[in-house]
Amino acid sequence: MKIKIDRQELFSIPNCLSYFRILLLPIFCVVYLGAESTWDYMIAGGILIVSALTDFFDGKIARRYNAITEFGKLLDPVADKLTLVAIALCLIPYYQKMIYLVIIMLIKEVYMFAMGYVHLKHGTKLDGAKWVGKICTATLFVALAILILIPQIEGTIADLIIGFEIIMVIMAILGYRKAFRQLKNTW
Prior knowledge:
- The protein is an all-alpha fold.
- It folds into 2 domains: 7-91, Four Helix Bundle (Hemerythrin (Met), subunit A) (Up-down Bundle), CATH 1.20.120.1760; 95-187, no CATH class.
- It is built from 7 helices and no strands.
- The chain has helices at 7-10, 13-33, 38-64, 70-91, 98-121, 131-149, 155-184.
- Helix 2 (13-33) runs antiparallel to helix 3 and helix 5 packs parallel to helix 7 (155-184).
- The radius of gyration is 18 Å and the shape is globular.
């Protein structure tokens, strides 16, 4: 199965917004990891807000102007995952338990990639993100934003937030496991 992507599709407004989100990641990392004042953390948070707004608008624009493409369906979640992993990696020096969340996030993404590949080889694929994945992504963004925007948050509260997100990612893995099993029954 080969997907043909034309130049117009590559440079559609929704896809350009996704590229912009990806380009914001190294800027965020440099600003956040070099932060020395509350203002620096606020700038890093502002970069994330801009990223979130471009994520929101790329989907809105794609739906409104019928600019949904197969490439965009791939690019948008890749930008989401890269953003989440970059933020989580930047938080590791500040919150020790964040490493566990990063590990479980990576396990989920490797699982999703492997299962997606296996199913594509059999001529099937999931029809978009499942509700459990959308909830997981949304809560991850909120939790990581809280940890970014409130750098002085108490350690116990940060650990509870991280623990909650570990549970959410595990729930997403289990939800997708069920979806992949159901899809396998169509082979």
